[in-house]
Specification:
This protein is of the alpha/beta class. The chain is built from four helices and seven strands.
């Protein structure tokens, strides 16, 4: 697995052994970042972004965001082997100072240090965790008003976002489906 574009283009990143982590394929990752760079209503969201990579696995989405101009990334992952892989990948790319790796469950997250403008959620397929995680992350201050959230899920699973999350795009790449949402904080305009 490699970083697809940006200043770390072509650099390899490692995944932990076993089936606990299901990394987003390079081609799908490229397509998602193309939408983030050029899609209606969301183009330019990466520039100097603060990013959350929840259910982070290898950290590929967050590291890709850093490579393409994001300012800072928080990785949230509960599997210890995946946490170690994320730390190793960030260090290998020289991005340790731009990253915070949290061993935490995105469904029961800690309070946010700062709200993010872009978040990636890649919960385990078939477990229906996306909506619950979105609500929990919003409640703990992780999402800035207007934040863009990209939820990856199995094409067979239906994700019904909570009422404060509004779909702006959806794409399918093989088995994976990506739902692009905008967070409208309660009481916001």
């Amino acid at each position: 697995m490699r970083i697809v574009a940006g200043r770390h283009r072509g650099r390899a990143i490692a995944a932990p052994e076993g089936l606990q982590v299901r990394p987003t394929a390079d081609r799908a990752r490229q397509a998602v970042f193309d939408v983030l760079a050029h899609g209606p209503e969301i183009a330019g969201v990466l520039t100097a972004a603060r990013v959350l990579d929840a259910f982070a696995g290898t950290g590929a989405m967050g590291l890709e965001a850093l490579s393409r101009g994001a300012e800072r990334v928080w990785f949230m992952e509960k599997d210890p082997a995946a946490v170690a892989a994320i730390r190793a990948n960030a260090a290998k790319l020289g991005e340790g100072k731009s990253c915070t790796v949290l061993r935490a469950d995105a469904v029961k997250p800690p309070a946010a240090e700062l709200p993010v403008s872009l978040a990636f959620l890649d919960p385990p397929y078939g477990e229906n965790l996306a909506a619950e995680a979105l609500e929990a992350l919003a409640a703990k201050g992780w999402l800035a008003p207007g934040a863009i959230i990209v939820v990856e899920h199995d094409a067979e699973d239906e994700v019904v976002p909570p009422h404060d999350f509004h779909p702006v795009d959806a794409r399918r790449y093989g088995r994976a489906r990506f739902l692009f949402l905008r967070y409208q904080a309660p009481g916001g305009d």
